[in-house]
C-alpha cells in the first residue's frame, strides 16, 4: 500500500515536472518559432511581390523541388548531431542514380536493381563509418575523400555521359502523384517522420545525441560508440541513395554529374535549422524549416526574374547569415 | 644581516570570504632551495600565485632584495626576475625544444626569426645547465622528465633570480628525478633561489636547504632541512601529534571489517603501466580506499579495472569468475561502474537532462532500435532524485544547471540504476564544495551498506580515512602497506605514501 502510494506520488511528480519541462521546451525552442515566423513572412512578402507565387501549383513545385535535398538534409541533421559530417552525399546521389540506371539497362528486374542500388549506398556508408569510427579519422577529411572517390566510380561505371533508362514504376515514383500530391513529397515526409521518431524515441537516437554531446562520457557509460557511429554513416548513405533514386526517377536517367554541391546545400539547411556544428544538439523540424526557407528564397527570385548569378549571391548570404546566427547562439 | 632575496610578511588572501592564507610569512636568501610543505588545501599554490602576482593579496607586504614591492603583477614579477613552473606542463608538443624555450622571446634578424641564433642560444643554455638534450628535437619526442627539464630551462632563459616550482615532480616517476635535482643545484650555485612544492617527503628533505611547513594558510615551522625527519614533517603538516594517535584508534575493526563477506572483486598480480603485483580483494558492502601520491599508480589500477588502460599481466576475478575487461562496455557487463575525477571531461552529458544522464547506461541493455520507455525512466529518475536527495525541480532539467554536488549524485545514480555491483570512484568529490563533499561521501557509504563494493580514492587523507573501511597504500606502483580501520593513522598513511615504514621508536618517545 505504502509503496504503491509512493509510486503514484512519484508519477505525479513526474507529470507535473513534465509540464514544467514542456514550458521550458517552448521557450528554448524559440529559435524554431522564429524560423517559422521567418518562413511565413517570406511567403507573405513573396505573395505580394509576385502574382504567380501564392498558388497550389507553385507550392507543389517548391515542395517537389525540396524532396531530394530535404531527404539528404534530414540525414545530415543526424550526422551533425553525432558530431560528424558527411560531404560524400552528393556523390552518393549520383552513384546511386547510375547504379539504378545501369542495372536496369543490364536487364535486372526492378527489385534487383533497387537492391543493388541500396547495397551501393550502404557500402559507401560503411566505408565512411569504418574510417571515421573504427580508425577514428576526422570525418571531414574522410568524406571529402570519398566524395571524390565515389563520384569517380560513378563516372567509370556509366562511362562519362548520362544514360536514359525506362521503368514504369520508377517513372510513377518520379512524376506520378496521389491525391494531387507528387509521390516524392510523400517519400520526403515519410523519411522526416521516421527519422524524427527514431531520433527522439529510440535508444539509438538518444545515443546519437549522447555521443555528439560527449563521446568520452558515452564510451564510459557503456554506449557502443563505434557501432553507433558506423550506423549513423550507413543510414546517411541509405538516405542519400534514396535521394539518388528519386532524382533518377524524376529525370529518367543515370547522371554521373548529379547531386553536385548537395552536401553544401544540405549543410546550409541544417545549420539554418538550428543544428549545432559542435554536435549533440539539433532537431529535424528545424531542418525542414531551413530547407523550406532556402527553397522559398530561390523560388521567389525565380518568380521575380532575378538572374541566376544573383541567386548564387543570395544563397551565399544565407549561409553566412545562418553560420553567424549559429555561432552567436552558442 | 644577510638580505633576503624575497620576503613576504603577513599575507592574507581570501576567496569568497574564506581565508586561504591567514597572515603567512616566508623569506629566503639568495641561492637557497626552500621546500614548501603542507597538506592539500593548506595554501601552498595560493602562496605561489601571490608571489608571482597572479593573485592580489588582501593585505601583507612583499619585499624583493629588501625593497618593498607595492603592486605585483605577472609582468612585473617577470621584470623582477620571478619565474614560475606550473604543475601542468605548458609546452607546445609539435615545436622544437629551442622554439619552446624562446617562444615569447624569439631572436630576430631583419624582422624575421633568426633560427640559427635561436638554436645556438638554446644549445648554449642547455650546455650551461649541463643538460644533454637536443634542442632541435620536438617536445613530443621527449620523456616526461625531459619535458619538465625543458620547462625549467625555458624559465631559466629569462635569467630568473627566483624560481617557483609547483609540484614539478608529480608527473614524474618516483625516483626518476636525479637530473631535475642536479639542475636545481646548478641554478642554486648560480645564485638563483628556488621555492619547491612537493608531497614527496624524501625528495623535499634531500633537495631543500630549508623547509617551511604551512597548515591551514598559516606558518607552522621553518628551519634547516637537516632538522627535519619525515615523521616530524608529517606531524607538523597534519597538526596531529603522536599523543593523538590513541584517540583515533578508538574504533574496533568489527563494524568495518567485511572479511567474512562474499568477495566481489579479486585481482591477482595485476600489472599495468608502472604498477605491478597488485593483488587485493573487495568484499560485498566494503569501501576499499586506495592512497597514493600523484604518479604512484592508483589511477592506473582503477582505470585498468574499468578497461580504460590495458593491463599487461595478471588476473581479474569478479564474483569468483574470471573476467576479461578490455573496454568500459566489458566492465559494465561484469557489473562495474566508474565515477571519474573530471565530471565534465568524461562523467556526464552536459546538454542532456538529468533523466537521460541517469538512464543512458541502463538503456544500453536494450536493443539499439527499441523504444525508450519514457514513463518507466521518468519514474526511475524521480525515485533517485528523491532517494539521493538530488536538488532539481525536474528530472527533465539539463544536468548542467545543477550544482556540482548534485551533478555528481546524478552520476552515481546512473550506476545504481544500472545495478552495478562494484563502483570505482576516482576522486568523486573533486571540484565540489565542502558541504556537498560530505553529502556525496555519506551517499557513498549508504550505497556500500546496501551491498555494493566500492573502490575509492581521494588525495585528501582525512577524507579517505573517513570514508574507507580499509586503506591500501600504493607507492611506486607497488602495494606498500595496508591499514585496517583500527590501524588508521593520518601521519602513518602519509609516510607510507612516501614509502616510509612506521618507525616504532617514534611513537614511544611521546
TrEMBL record, chain A:
<feature type="transmembrane region" description="Helical">
    <location>
        <begin position="308"/>
        <end position="327"/>
    </location>
</feature>
<keyword id="KW-1133">Transmembrane helix</keyword>
<feature type="transmembrane region" description="Helical">
    <location>
        <begin position="87"/>
        <end position="106"/>
    </location>
</feature>
<protein>
    <submittedName>
        <fullName>ABC transporter permease</fullName>
    </submittedName>
</protein>
<dbReference type="InterPro" id="IPR001851">
    <property type="entry name" value="ABC_transp_permease"/>
</dbReference>
<dbReference type="GO" id="GO:0005886">
    <property type="term" value="C:plasma membrane"/>
</dbReference>
<dbReference type="InterPro" id="IPR037294">
    <property type="entry name" value="ABC_BtuC-like"/>
</dbReference>
<feature type="transmembrane region" description="Helical">
    <location>
        <begin position="140"/>
        <end position="158"/>
    </location>
</feature>
<feature type="transmembrane region" description="Helical">
    <location>
        <begin position="31"/>
        <end position="55"/>
    </location>
</feature>
<keyword id="KW-0812">Transmembrane</keyword>
<feature type="transmembrane region" description="Helical">
    <location>
        <begin position="178"/>
        <end position="199"/>
    </location>
</feature>
<keyword id="KW-1003">Cell membrane</keyword>
<feature type="transmembrane region" description="Helical">
    <location>
        <begin position="62"/>
        <end position="81"/>
    </location>
</feature>
<feature type="transmembrane region" description="Helical">
    <location>
        <begin position="113"/>
        <end position="134"/>
    </location>
</feature>
<feature type="transmembrane region" description="Helical">
    <location>
        <begin position="230"/>
        <end position="249"/>
    </location>
</feature>
<dbReference type="GO" id="GO:0022857">
    <property type="term" value="F:transmembrane transporter activity"/>
</dbReference>
<dbReference type="Pfam" id="PF02653">
    <property type="entry name" value="BPD_transp_2"/>
</dbReference>
<keyword id="KW-0472">Membrane</keyword>
<comment type="similarity">
    <text>Belongs to the binding-protein-dependent transport system permease family. AraH/RbsC subfamily.</text>
</comment>
Automatic annotation (TrEMBL), chain B:
<dbReference type="InterPro" id="IPR017871">
    <property type="entry name" value="ABC_transporter-like_CS"/>
</dbReference>
<keyword id="KW-1278">Translocase</keyword>
<dbReference type="InterPro" id="IPR003439">
    <property type="entry name" value="ABC_transporter-like_ATP-bd"/>
</dbReference>
<keyword id="KW-1003">Cell membrane</keyword>
<dbReference type="InterPro" id="IPR050107">
    <property type="entry name" value="ABC_carbohydrate_import_ATPase"/>
</dbReference>
<keyword id="KW-0762">Sugar transport</keyword>
<dbReference type="GO" id="GO:0005886">
    <property type="term" value="C:plasma membrane"/>
</dbReference>
<comment type="function">
    <text>Part of the ABC transporter complex LsrABCD involved in autoinducer 2 (AI-2) import. Responsible for energy coupling to the transport system.</text>
</comment>
<feature type="domain" description="ABC transporter">
    <location>
        <begin position="6"/>
        <end position="241"/>
    </location>
</feature>
<dbReference type="InterPro" id="IPR003593">
    <property type="entry name" value="AAA+_ATPase"/>
</dbReference>
<keyword id="KW-0547">Nucleotide-binding</keyword>
<dbReference type="Pfam" id="PF00005">
    <property type="entry name" value="ABC_tran"/>
</dbReference>
<keyword id="KW-0067">ATP-binding</keyword>
<keyword id="KW-0813">Transport</keyword>
<feature type="domain" description="ABC transporter">
    <location>
        <begin position="259"/>
        <end position="501"/>
    </location>
</feature>
<dbReference type="InterPro" id="IPR027417">
    <property type="entry name" value="P-loop_NTPase"/>
</dbReference>
<comment type="subunit">
    <text>The complex is composed of two ATP-binding proteins (LsrA), two transmembrane proteins (LsrC and LsrD) and a solute-binding protein (LsrB).</text>
</comment>
<protein>
    <recommendedName>
        <fullName>Autoinducer 2 import ATP-binding protein LsrA</fullName>
        <ecNumber>7.6.2.13</ecNumber>
    </recommendedName>
</protein>
<comment type="similarity">
    <text>Belongs to the ABC transporter superfamily. AI-2 autoinducer porter (TC 3.A.1.2.8) family.</text>
</comment>
<dbReference type="GO" id="GO:0005524">
    <property type="term" value="F:ATP binding"/>
</dbReference>
<keyword id="KW-0472">Membrane</keyword>
<keyword id="KW-0677">Repeat</keyword>
Amino acid at each position: 500500500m505504502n509503496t504503491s502510494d509512493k509510486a503514484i506520488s512519484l508519477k505525479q511528480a513526474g507529470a507535473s515536472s513534465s509540464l514544467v519541462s514542456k514550458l521550458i521546451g517552448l521557450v528554448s525552442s524559440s529559435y524554431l518559432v522564429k524560423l517559422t515566423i521567418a518562413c511565413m513572412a517570406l511567403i507573405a512578402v513573396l505573395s505580394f511581390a509576385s502574382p504567380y507565387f501564392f498558388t497550389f501549383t507553385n507550392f507543389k513545385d517548391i515542395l517537389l523541388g525540396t524532396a531530394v535535398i530535404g531527404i539528404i538534409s534530414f540525414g545530415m541533421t543526424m550526422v551533425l548531431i553525432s558530431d560528424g559530417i558527411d560531404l560524400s552525399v552528393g556523390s552518393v546521389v549520383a552513384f546511386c542514380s547510375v547504379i539504378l540506371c545501369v542495372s536496369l539497362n543490364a536487364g535486372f528486374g526492378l527489385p534487383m536493381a533497387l537492391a543493388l542500388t541500396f547495397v551501393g549506398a550502404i557500402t559507401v556508408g560503411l566505408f565512411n563509418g569504418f574510417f571515421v569510427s573504427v580508425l577514428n579519422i576526422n570525418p571531414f577529411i574522410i568524406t571529402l575523400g570519398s566524395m571524390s572517390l565515389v563520384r569517380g566510380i560513378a563516372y567509370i561505371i556509366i562511362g562519362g555521359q548520362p544514360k536514359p533508362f525506362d521503368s514504369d514504376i520508377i517513372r510513377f515514383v518520379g512524376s506520378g502523384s496521389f491525391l494531387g500530391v507528387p509521390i516524392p513529397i510523400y517519400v520526403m515526409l515519410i523519411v522526416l517522420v521516421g527519422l524524427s521518431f527514431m531520433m527522439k524515441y529510440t535508444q539509438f537516437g538518444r545515443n546519437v545525441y549522447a555521443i555528439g554531446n560527449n563521446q568520452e562520457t558515452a564510451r564510459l557509460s557503456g554506449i557502443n560508440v563505434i557501432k553507433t557511429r558506423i550506423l549513423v554513416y550507413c543510414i546517411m548513405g541509405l538516405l542519400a541513395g534514396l535521394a539518388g533514386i528519386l532524382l533518377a526517377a524524376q529525370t529518367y536517367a543515370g547522371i554521373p554529374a548529379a547531386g553536385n554541391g548537395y552536401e553544401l546545400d544540405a549543410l546550409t539547411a541544417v545549420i539554418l535549422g538550428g543544428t549545432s556544428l559542435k554536435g549533440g544538439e539539433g532537431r529535424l523540424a528545424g531542418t525542414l524549416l531551413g530547407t523550406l526557407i532556402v527553397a522559398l528564397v530561390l523560388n521567389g527570385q525565380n518568380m521575380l526574374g532575378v538572374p541566376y548569378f544573383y541567386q548564387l549571391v543570395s544563397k551565399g548570404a544565407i549561409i553566412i547569415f545562418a553560420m553567424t546566427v549559429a555561432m552567436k547562439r552558442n | 644581516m644577510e638580505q633576503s632575496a624575497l620576503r613576504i610578511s603577513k599575507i592574507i588572501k581570501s576567496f569568497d570570504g574564506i581565508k586561504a592564507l591567514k597572515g603567512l610569512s616566508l623569506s629566503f636568501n639568495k641561492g637557497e632551495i626552500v621546500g614548501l610543505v603542507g597538506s592539500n588545501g593548506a595554501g601552498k599554490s595560493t602562496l605561489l600565485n601571490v608571489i608571482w602576482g597572479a593573485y592580489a593579496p588582501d593585505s601583507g607586504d612583499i619585499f624583493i632584495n629588501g625593497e618593498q614591492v607595492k603592486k605585483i603583477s605577472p609582468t612585473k614579477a617577470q621584470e623582477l626576475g620571478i619565474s614560475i613552473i606550473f604543475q601542468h606542463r605548458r609546452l607546445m608538443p609539435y615545436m622544437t625544444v629551442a622554439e619552446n624555450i624562446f617562444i615569447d622571446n624569439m631572436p630576430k634578424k631583419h624582422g624575421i626569426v633568426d633560427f640559427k641564433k635561436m638554436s645556438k642560444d638554446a644549445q648554449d643554455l642547455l650546455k650551461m645547465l649541463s643538460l644533454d638534450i637536443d634542442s632541435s628535437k620536438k617536445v613530443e619526442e621527449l620523456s616526461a622528465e625531459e619535458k619538465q627539464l625543458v620547462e625549467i630551462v625555458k624559465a631559466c632563459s629569462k635569467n630568473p633570480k627566483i624560481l617557483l616550482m609547483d609540484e614539478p615532480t608529480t608527473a614524474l616517476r618516483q625516483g626518476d628525478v636525479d637530473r631535475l635535482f642536479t639542475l636545481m643545484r646548478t641554478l642554486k650555485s648560480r645564485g638563483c633561489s628556488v621555492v619547491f612544492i612537493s608531497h614527496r617527503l624524501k625528495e623535499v628533505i634531500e633537495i631543500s636547504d630549508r623547509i617551511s611547513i604551512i597548515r591551514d594558510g598559516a606558518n607552522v615551522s621553518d628551519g634547516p632541512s637537516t632538522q627535519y625527519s619525515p615523521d616530524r614533517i608529517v606531524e607538523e603538516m597534519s597538526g596531529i601529534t603522536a599523543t593523538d594517535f590513541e584517540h583515533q584508534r578508538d574504533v574496533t575493526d568489527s563494524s568495518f571489517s567485511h572479511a567474512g563477506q562474499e568477495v566481489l572483486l579479486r585481482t591477482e598480480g595485476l600489472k599495468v603501466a608502472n604498477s605491478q603485483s597488485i593483488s587485493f580483494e573487495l568484499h560485498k558492502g566494503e569501501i576499499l580506499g586506495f592512497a597514493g601520491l600523484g604518479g604512484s599508480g592508483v589511477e592506473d589500477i582503477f582505470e585498468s579495472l574499468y578497461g580504460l588502460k590495458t593491463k599487461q599481466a595478471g588476473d581479474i576475478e569478479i564474483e569468483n569468475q574470471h573476467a576479461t575487461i578490455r573496454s568500459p562496455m566489458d566492465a559494465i557487463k561484469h557489473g562495474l561502474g566508474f565515477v571519474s575525477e573530471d565530471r565534465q571531461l568524461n562523467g556526464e552529458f552536459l546538454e542532456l537532462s538529468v533523466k537521460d544522464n541517469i538512464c543512458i547506461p541502463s538503456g544500453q541493455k536494450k536493443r539499439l532500435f527499441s523504444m525508450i520507455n519514457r514513463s518507466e525512466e521518468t519514474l526511475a529518475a524521480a525515485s533517485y532524485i528523491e532517494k539521493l536527495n538530488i536538488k532539481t525541480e525536474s528530472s527533465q532539467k539539463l544536468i548542467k544547471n545543477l550544482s556540482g554536488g548534485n551533478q555528481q549524485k546524478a552520476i552515481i545514480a546512473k550506476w545504481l540504476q544500472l545495478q552495478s555491483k562494484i563502483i570505482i570512484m576516482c576522486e568523486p568529490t573533486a571540484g565540489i564544495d565542502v558541504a556537498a563533499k560530505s553529502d556525496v561521501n555519506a551517499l557513498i557509504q549508504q550505497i556500500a551498506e546496501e551491498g555494493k563494493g566500492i573502490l575509492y580514492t581521494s588525495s585528501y587523507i582525512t577524507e579517505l580515512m573517513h570514508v574507507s573501511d580499509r586503506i591500501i597504500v600504493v607507492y611506486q606502483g607497488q602495494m606498500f602497506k595496508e591499514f585496517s580501520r583500527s590501524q588508521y593513522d593520518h601521519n602513518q598513511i602519509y609516510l607510507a605514501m612516501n614509502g616510509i615504514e612506521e618507525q616504532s621508536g617514534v611513537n614511544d618517545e611521546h
